[in-house]
Amino acid sequence: MAGREQPYDPYIPAGNAGQGGSAQYEGGNTRTAAIQSQIDDTVNVMKKNLESVAQRGEHIDQLQDKSENLNQSAQGFRRGANRVRKQMWWKNMKMRIWIMVGIIVILLLIIIPVVVTKNQ
């Protein structure tokens, strides 16, 4: 059995199978610690990314609410603007009618006395 290779055991670090050297075992621990540190860093980055995605979702919801409010405000403004436009159109038409009536009255005041004086 001295010439045979030991079976693979996942719990024994590589290069340490069948050897009692503590230097290689410590190297395996530092390597494992380094890998664990990288895994922890990766997990922390992923947690931060998930938090960012959650915050982005909240921001999107807030933007959606604001855009809906803005849309409703725009519709209200459009209705109000149309109402004011119609009111101003009627006011303008009333002014034109009053001006036309005024011109007709002035013309009648000028024409009637001239016609009356010519007929006498």
Write out key terms for the chains shown.
120 residues; mainly alpha; 1 helix; 0% strand; transmembrane helix; V-SNARE coiled-coil homology domain-containing protein; V_SNARE_CC; coiled coil
Structure description:
It contains 1 helix and no strands. Mean pLDDT is 84; it is low at 16-25. Helices cover 82% and strands 0% of the residues. It is mainly α and 120 residues long. It has one helix at 22-119.
What string gives the helices and strands in order?
A: H
Helix residue percentage: over 70%
Please state the CA-atom Rg, rounded to the nearest Å.
47 Å
Strand content: under 5%
Write a compact overview of the structure shown.
This protein has 120 residues and is an all-alpha fold. The chain has 1 helix and no strands.
List the helices and strands and how they pair.
Elements (H helix, E strand, L loop, with lengths): L21 H98 L1
Keywords: Coiled coil, Membrane, Transmembrane, Transmembrane helix
Protein name: V-SNARE coiled-coil homology domain-containing protein
Pfam families: Synaptobrevin
